[in-house]
Design brief:
38% helix; 13 helices; alpha/beta; 5-stranded antiparallel β-sheet
């Protein structure tokens, strides 16, 4: 793709920003305290503002532009579909909807062969939980503290991070537990084997005290995303699968962020040789070009609704434009070996490069990840592992991370920053040169974080 020639237009940027400030209500924000960047355009792994500043996007939007911005084949597919059939109600069989479902089902593990389309990840989680409750006749759902599942009613109650607190009504039938995370182990483990075994025992104890016959589902992000990209230790997900089978609990894997190449596999579950009963997806399914998500459903759960109507649906379920984008995205990923590229970049560029940064920067406590899905856990003290900023810090307490983020942007890198972490999550088709450019910018920004270490 030929690099876009950036033509600065500050006046246009000021107009965009003024309209935004006057009328747009932004998510997860105190409206009077934010200053959104006015974006003029994007292409591949980069975007730029109206002042001519160009940024390497190490966030992939919100970890969804898995094939980068403005891929010409996907743009063309959307245009062609708009000319053919822009929209149609979900109760009908539409060629592009059927093809998108077929291509997704071909890549999901095991017998997850039925696809229920939603408009995004949160709605996928909502419907997966509804399916599990109806299938089992039970109410409770277990989820991990370090997690994020979306912002709709059930999804936000399932979420473990602080964004849940304002909407936690305490009556959604959700029980939380500690999933494994050796670096900050709640189980006093010293090895991955210990962490896995103790986390599984803790989960089974939780089930015992909650009452196995009351629990419909356990939902886990295969690799937790926003919460910190903690790759589960060997044996853990397989152990959860066994526990679910033992008690007749539906196992739901949330692959909204980890799916479609992000970890160097089509789905992260492939790394762990585990097949859930339900799998949610969104984001990378069509690189976020048109909103789309869904639930991949196993044969036994789909059979529950063979003669019994499923009580759920969305006006735009399987929207033709979104499905056309999904078909084109999956074909691009196949033809251009995007999943292989993500694995290669993780193994040979990002992984080694981030670990090398950790050796030189005392603010880096741990490097973890796979594919193009990495986190740097930033600390004040490597020995005590005290986070660089307190949990859920804001204002002055968050100043060290704010300074780090500002330094990254000054060096032309748009970083993913959450609490005391920065995540390296570029497009799955990022080039070696772009990944190295990002590492160099991180190197410079981490010197700012180092100033706050003990």
């Amino acid at each position: 793709m030929t690099p876009h020639v950036i033509e600065p237009d500050p006046q246009a940027g000021a107009a965009v920003k003024a309209a935004d400030r006057a009328h747009v209500f932004h998510s997860w924000s105190a409206q009077g305290l934010i200053d959104p960047l006015a974006v003029a355009g994007a292409e591949g792994s980069y975007f730029w503002d109206y002042d001519g500043n160009r940024y390497l996007d190490f966030t992939s939007g919100l970890v969804y532009t898995n094939i980068g911005y403005q891929h010409p084949r996907v743009v063309a597919a959307i245009q062609e579909q708009a000319a053919k059939l822009t929209t149609f109600a979900p109760a009908f069989a539409i060629d592009v909807r059927s093809e998108a479902a077929r291509l997704i089902a071909e890549r999901t593990p095991g017998d997850l062969d039925k696809i229920f389309f939603t408009n995004g990840g949160a709605e996928a989680v909502e419907n997966a939980v509804r399916m599990a409750r109806l299938h089992t006749g039970r109410t409770k759902v277990l989820s991990a503290y370090r997690s994020y599942h979306g912002a709709t009613s059930t999804a936000i109650n399932l979420t473990g991070d602080p964004r849940r607190w304002a909407s936690d009504n305490g009556s959604a039938g959700v029980v939380r537990f500690w999933a494994p995370f050796l670096y900050r182990s709640p189980f006093y483990a010293t090895t991955e084997a210990e962490e896995s075994a103790r986390a599984l025992q803790h989960l089974e104890d939780t089930i015992a005290f909650e009452g196995p016959a009351t629990i419909a589902a356990i939902i886990l992000e295969t690799v937790p995303g926003t919460a910190g990209i903690m790759t589960p230790p060997p044996g853990y997900l397989a152990g959860v699968r066994e526990i679910c089978d033992k008690y007749g609990i539906v196992f739901v894997l949330d692959e909204v962020m980890a799916g479609f190449g992000r970890t160097g596999k089509w789905f992260a579950a492939e790394h762990f040789d585990v097949v859930p009963d339900l799998m949610t997806f969104a984001k990378g399914v069509n690189s976020g070009y048109v909103p789309l998500g869904g639930v991949a459903i196993s044969e036994k759960i789909a059979a529950t609704f063979d003669k019994r109507p499923y009580p759920g649906g969305l006006t735009y379920s399987g929207h033709p434009l979104a499905c056309a984008a999904a078909v084109a995205t999956i074909q691009v990923m196949e033809d251009e070996k995007v999943v292989d590229n993500a694995a290669h970049i993780g193994e040979n560029v990002l992984g080694p490069g981030l670990r090398e940064l950790a050796e030189r920067h005392p603010s880096v406590g741990e490097v973890r990840g796979l594919g193009v899905f990495w986190a740097l856990d930033l600390v004040r003290n490597r020995e005590t592992r005290e986070p660089l900023v307190p949990y859920n810090a804001a204002g002055e307490a968050n100043a060290p991370m704010a300074a780090f983020g500002a330094a990254a942007k000054k060096n032309g890198l748009w970083p993913f920053v959450n609490m005391n972490r920065t995540h390296a999550v570029p497009a799955c088709n990022v080039t070696e040169a772009e990944a190295k450019e990002g590492l160099a910018a991180l190197d410079a920004a981490l010197t700012v974080a180092d100033e706050h270490t003990a």
